[in-house]
Amino acid sequence: MEEATRRAIEWDCAQSTARFYNHVDAGRFREAAEMFVDDGIWHRMEGGATGPDAIVKELEARDPNRVSMHLISNLTVRVIDVITAEVTANISACHAKPAAKGPATDAAIGGVMRTVEIWKKSASGWKMTDKKTQPLLRFSH
Fold first, then answer.
1. What would the pLDDT profile of 94-117 be if each residue is shown by its tens digit?
2. Which parts of the chain are beta strand (E)?
3. Tell me, what CATH number does 28's domain have?
4. How many structural domains compose the chain?
């Protein structure tokens, strides 16, 4: 594989992971779920879901009175072939109470998770086929 091709895949998949968490944090759950293939599986700490509709349902079950922010670190992309890549990253999950005006309050880092995602290139771009999220650190408040 040419170096330029490998780098382009790494960039696309890293950006796709960031875009996924930006959608989740903004409450755009359908957009986040559409980043999975039709039978894509998200293995979550709270359970799991298969397919975009089930993923939306899982995300909509979250507390609507909580602001979340997922901070991505230590992200690496392992290119498997020209249509498959694996993203591994640590995610610091922050949450807070929404404020009527200004920044959210009572912010805390709930913990750090590791995500391992398999991305496949399709006619409509890169889509996740499998996403595993497991806790690494939990913080007491």
1. 988 888 887 877 888 889 999 999
2. 36-44, 47-50, 67-81, 84-97, 105-122, 125-138
3. 3.10.450.50
4. 1
